[in-house]
Design goal:
The complex is a heterodimer of chains A (about 300) and B (about 350). Chain A has about 300 residues and is mostly helical. Helix content of chain A is about 70%, strand content about 0%. Chain A has a two-stranded antiparallel ribbon. The two termini of chain B are about 20 Å apart. Chain B has one domain. Helices cover about 75% and strands about 0% of the residues of chain B. Chain B has about 350 residues and is mainly α. The chains are: A mainly alpha (about 300), B mainly alpha (about 350).
Chain lengths: ~300, ~350
């Protein structure tokens, strides 16, 4: 196979993968703080994108104002979700929490579509669709911008976890009871992680909305986001970014080899296979902690 | 007063091992059984066949999922895939000329074979990781289904089910189809009621509570996990086949998508893990209430003279369905079965418990 073409596939795969990481960071943040698998992240991403659009189109704000405002609104929403729903189920078996987040996902999706309708809208960030040439390699501009956002978020969160508040969150992630006993407000910490995850959802929603249009398909990123989060280790943000790049490359290059064999559409198959293999071989992922229970 | 008891007291082992330890419960169950049998004669056939029939079949499917999730404690997010295996193999067998009785059994058996594959994931992971693995397996099954025309029935991806024919009788009337669903649901319910009293049922519960404690007691958890997955898949496979044979009449991959798996799990959890009566409630709530609420919203908007657009109306049932899951879990994480149990326990000794306080 042509090496230039392979390189193009790999680079674009890595950029797409970074966008998956953008989504997965939200999952990791919540899992890190409260060991809750947040299957509502797809719904949150969708709501984030629709809120930005509602502010920009229906109210008529410029995007530079609409996005920060949407971030503020979504932070409140995330905080509220934790306060109203998740806190009541703290300490319950994972089955119920899993179901609760799935229910939230369905509710968020249904409500968004009931309010704004299901027709696909475009985000119109004003980034040109002209590809960027790097030698002979074509690179999509929006993917590049999204990857930069993902890397900035990664850096921001790595720094954040070194601040006083971040250290508190790490303590909560480590041990609920111990942090409680030294006077850390566990509830507020977990709420904060939901708020931050919703903020991440806005950025993922804006970038993915620009790429594939703002519609119901945004919530279908969940499987890919979950795969990235598990592959990176559910509680490692750096892991999410590295795993995103790996999954993106594997998916893009693998699909190119597999598609002619199976007649197209092998991407989902590859993602599902990566998820299953990760759990079977290395359930704590690349960078996750080792204390995950095995049978 | 309602149960005419002052509590449940046993004076011999026979009374302790009864299915219904309280006579009033048994009478209630009999009343509902009679109502169920009489339904085609007392209710309009539209209601019986478009609400009660899917309710009964989904209840049997939910009971199957409850066996693996509620009893054996293994999370399963790929149940729709198992139902699809049952449905497709039964229909292909029936189209091939196999009598329907055997086709249903073939569907159930092939579902159990594929369903046992899910069990191998359970041997390796549990809790969240098992849920994610079964979810991924569901995606793979979906993919196989939509990408193999030989299974899903050509370019239109739909497969016509041949007319259901049991014991030499062609079943085409609405009443007949309803009775098939009722019979299957009863069979599964009786099986589940009795499972609680057998060694197998107790072994499954032991595996759920603590697998290595079970191992110390001599319960080989790997074996029982596979048995649980195989049994629940058999029930799911036959239910899937009956769902197509008596309700959809046409099998399509969307009937067994990821969303349906989530719906099945929602039915079980909203109903209550390990609760049989809860499964009936859970299925009724998840399957029927969103439609009812939508009807109410439409009626209310017409009364108030508001114009709701079509898309809003199309998505309200989904929002309600999600909200119901969240609300029930917040009110009572153990589901509707537990809520029913609380009310029953309160009424059981009702005016007399006031004396204790």
């Amino acid at each position: 196979m042509d090496p230039v073409f392979l390189a193009e596939l790999a680079i674009n795969g890595a950029l797409t993968g970074l966008l998956y990481s953008l989504f997965a960071i939200g999952l990791v943040l919540i899992y890190k703080a409260s060991s809750v698998p947040n299957l509502a992240q797809g719904g949150l991403t969708m709501v984030g994108a629709y809120v930005v659009l509602a502010l920009a189109r229906d109210v008529g704000m410029p995007l530079w104002l609409a996005i920060p405002l949407a971030i503020a609104i979504m932070f409140g929403l995330g905080f509220g979700i934790e306060r109203v729903a998740l806190r009541r189920l703290a300490g319950r078996p994972v089955v119920m929490i899993l179901m609760l987040t799935l229910g939230l996902d369905i509710f968020l999706r249904g409500t968004t579509l009931a309010v704004w309708g299901g027709t696909s809208r475009s985000m119109e960030l004003g980034i040109s669709y002209e590809p960027l040439f790097l030698g002979d390699i074509l690179i999509s501009r929006i993917h590049l911008v999204g990857s930069v956002v993902a890397v900035i978020l990664l850096a921001a969160f790595l720094l954040f976890f070194r601040t006083r508040l971040g250290v508190k969150l790490r303590a909560i992630a480590d041990d609920y009871m111990a942090s409680w006993s030294v006077g850390i407000s566990v509830e507020r910490g977990v709420g904060l992680s939901w708020g931050l995850a919703s903020v991440v959802a806005v950025s993922a929603g804006v970038i993915w909305g620009e790429i594939q249009g703002v519609d119901q398909a945004l919530s279908l990123l969940l499987l890919k986001g979950l795969t990235v989060a598990v592959l990176g280790g559910l509680d490692s943000i750096l892991g999410a970014v590295v795993a995103g790049i790996i999954l993106g490359v594997v998916e893009n290059v693998g699909a190119d080899f597999l598609d002619p064999l199976v007649g197209g559409g092998s991407r989902e198959l590859i993602v599902a296979a990566v998820l299953i293999l990760t759990i079977m071989i290395r359930p704590h992922g690349l960078f996750g902690r080792h204390d995950i229970e095995r049978v | 007063m309602f149960y005419r008891l002052s509590g449940v007291y046993h004076t011999n082992y026979i009374s302790d091992s009864r299915i219904y330890k309280v006579p009033a419960d048994r009478n209630l169950a009999l009343t509902f059984l009679i109502l169920g049998v009489a339904a085609p004669f007392i209710a309009p056939s539209l209601y019986v066949n478009s609400y009660m029939l899917p309710w009964l079949i989904w209840t049997s499917a939910a009971l199957g999922l409850n066996l693996v999730t509620g009893w054996a404690g293994q999370l399963h997010l790929g149940y729709a895939a198992v139902m699809a295996v049952g449905a497709y193999s039964a229909i292909h067998a029936a189209r091939f000329g196999v009598p329907w009785e055997f086709a249903l059994i073939i569907g159930g058996l092939s579902a159990s074979v594929i369903g046992s594959l899910f069990a191998f994931a359970a041997l390796r992971a549990k809790g969240l990781y098992l849920a994610l693995t079964t979810l991924a397996m569901q995606f793979i099954m979906d993919w196989v289904l939509t990408h193999s025309p030989a299974i899903s029935g050509g370019s239109h991806a739909s497969l016509q089910a041949p007319t259901l024919k049991l014991l030499g009788q062609e079943i085409t009337s609405d009443t007949g189809l309803y009775y098939v669903a009722l019979a299957w649901c009863l069979l599964v319910t009786i099986f589940m009621l009795n499972l609680k009293r057998t060694g197998l049922g107790r072994a499954l519960v032991a595996v759920r509570e603590k697998d290595y404690a079970a191992a110390i007691l001599g319960v080989y958890s790997f074996y029982y996990k596979i048995v649980a997955f195989a049994m629940s898949s058999f029930i799911g496979g036959v239910s899937g086949a009956l769902l197509v044979a008596t309700f959809f009449f046409l099998a399509a991959p969307e009937q067994f998508s990821v969303a349906v798996s989530i719906q099945a799990l929602a039915m079980v959890i909203v109903g209550g893990l390990g609760s049989i009566i809860g499964s009936y409630f859970g299925v009724a709530l998840i399957l029927l209430v969103p439609g009812l609420v939508n009807g109410v919203v439409v009626a209310a908007s017409e009364q108030l003279g508001m114009q709701l657009n079509v898309e809003t109306l199309a998505h309200i049932p989904n929002a309600v369905y999600g909200a119901l899951i969240v609300i029930i879990l917040i009110i009572e994480p153990l589901g509707l079965g537990k809520l029913y149990g609380n009310i029953r326990d309160y009424l059981m000794v009702w005016p007399f418990d006031q004396l204790r306080k």
